[in-house]
């Protein structure tokens, strides 16, 4: 990381898409539509509510068109060393608050971890993987539909796509379990294959219903599918030109949003967790909830941040090795989540959240602010730091 602790250690390079923008300026991601053959049956609703997934299932039932060009432009700005998007005026990121508001998912409770397949060794009521699969779903997939511990989505869809009209309660439960496995394995935690579901989702989970998903408001959004490469360049330039005063730091504070959110989301015990600097866990995958770098998203003033936490060694873990119990092998990070309430930040909430003058000065020296060619930018680098930034507060206090 060098001698300067303020340095962002991975700004470019072959490991990041930002390193090839000049060579491939129209590079665009491709998305895959998933869970096409699993209809949301009304009889599944009680089980989805018990699992805290009902609102996510409703979002899945109405398909969203992904604006691949816009997402590509933001992927370019995602920095693994800070777990934030690097904008021209500072950083922003996806937080637990966004998960609660947009998807209606529980954000507090036990971590999503355990083992990948050896359930009978580590879980008190567990069974050997395929024995448990048959007990919970009533059928075993043929060998041609299985790759190690993952089952082809096409088999799931053909087998559990439509629950029989005259199904008894046990049959409905099996179909509901299959639907939940598909929902988790393809919508929340999809792998790069896009066509397989891992049996790690067999162990049942129980959460209470939480909130209303604001993401449903986007169900009518229909982005253009033409000339994606040129649209990537267009979005890249628009984001480059975006100013701090144009950025909505707190989109959930408006009355029209608050009136459609489930009251439980606004309980202090949930809202406090949004401001926790902690580990987010998905089996062997660890991400860092780096909200100390995005205080304006919670109404604060952003001072120069602490040095970035280097957890590159965790980014290389893919979870292979079903005989491992991740709460033990990655104990440090699981304990951080267990003590998440101790890591809640306290800071002054102001009327005009945003970056401080000291932050902008630091950011102009260390951040990678612009991605478009200088000929397209009109040289915004010459724009001085706004006066209002120097009048903002000094930043966070713990």
Explain this structure.
One of its GO terms (biological process) is meristem maintenance. This protein has 398 residues and is mainly alpha-helical. It has a domain at 1-27 and 66-116 and 246-398. It is 32% helix and 8% strand. It has helices at residues 45-50, 54-61, 68-75, 96-103, 119-122, 129-137, 153-160, 169-188, 228-241, 255-258, 268-273, 312-315, 326-329, 331-338, 357-366, 374-377, 387-390, and strands at 78-79, 84-87, 90-92, 146-147, 150-152, 196-198, 278-282, 285-289, 301-302, 354-355. The strands form 4 sheets. A 3-stranded antiparallel β-sheet has the order 1-2-3. A 3-stranded antiparallel β-sheet has the order 4-5-6. Strand 7 and strand 8 form a beta hairpin. Helix 3 crosses helix 9. The protein is globular. The two termini are 26 Å apart. Mean pLDDT is 79; it is low at 204-222.
Characteristics of this structure?
single chain, 398 residues, mainly alpha, 3-stranded antiparallel beta sheet, 17 helices, 10 strands, globular
């Amino acid at each position: 990381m060098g001698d300067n602790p303020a340095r962002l250690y991975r700004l470019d390079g072959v490991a990041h898409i930002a390193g090839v923008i000049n060579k491939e300026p129209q590079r665009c991601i491709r998305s895959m539509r998933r869970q096409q053959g699993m209809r949301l049956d009304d009889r599944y609703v009680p089980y989805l509510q018990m699992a805290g997934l009902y609102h996510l299932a409703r979002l899945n039932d109405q398909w969203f068109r992904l604006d691949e060009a816009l997402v590509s432009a933001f992927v370019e700005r995602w920095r693994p060393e800070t777990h934030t998007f690097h904008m021209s005026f500072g950083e922003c990121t996806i937080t637990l608050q966004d998960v609660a508001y947009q998807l209606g998912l529980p954000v507090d409770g036990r971590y999503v971890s355990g083992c990948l397949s050896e359930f009978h060794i580590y879980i008190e009521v567990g069974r050997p993987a395929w024995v448990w699969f048959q007990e919970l779903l009533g059928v075993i997939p043929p060998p041609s539909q299985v790759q190690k511990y993952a089952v082809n989505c096409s088999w799931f869809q053909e087998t559990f796509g439509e629950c029989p009209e005259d199904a008894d309660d046990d049959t409905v439960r099996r179909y509901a379990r299959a639907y939940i496995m598909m929902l988790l394995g393809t919508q929340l935690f999809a792998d790069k294959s896009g066509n397989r579901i891992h049996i790690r989702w067999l162990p049942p989970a129980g959460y209470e219903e939480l909130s209303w998903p604001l993401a449903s408001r986007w169900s009518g959004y229909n982005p253009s599918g033409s000339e994606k490469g040129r649209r990537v360049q267009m979005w890249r330039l628009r984001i480059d030109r975006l100013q701090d005063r144009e950025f909505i730091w707190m989109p959930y504070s408006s009355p029209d949003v608050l009136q459609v959110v489930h009251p439980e989301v606004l309980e202090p015990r949930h809202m406090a967790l949004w401001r926790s600097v902690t580990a987010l866990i998905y089996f062997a995958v660890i991400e860092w909830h780096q909200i100390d770098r995005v205080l304006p998203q919670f109404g604060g003033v952003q001072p120069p941040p602490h040095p970035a936490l280097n957890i590159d060694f965790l980014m290389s873990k893919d979870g292979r090795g079903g005989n491992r119990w991740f709460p033990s092998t990655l104990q440090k990070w699981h304990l951080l989540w267990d003590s998440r309430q101790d890591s809640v930040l306290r800071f002054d909430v102001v009327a005009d959240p945003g970056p401080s003058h000291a932050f902008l000065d630091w950011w102009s020296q260390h951040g990678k602010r612009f991605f478009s060619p200088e000929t397209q930018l009109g040289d915004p680098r010459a724009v001085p730091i706004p006066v209002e930034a120097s009048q903002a507060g000094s930043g966070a206090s713990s």
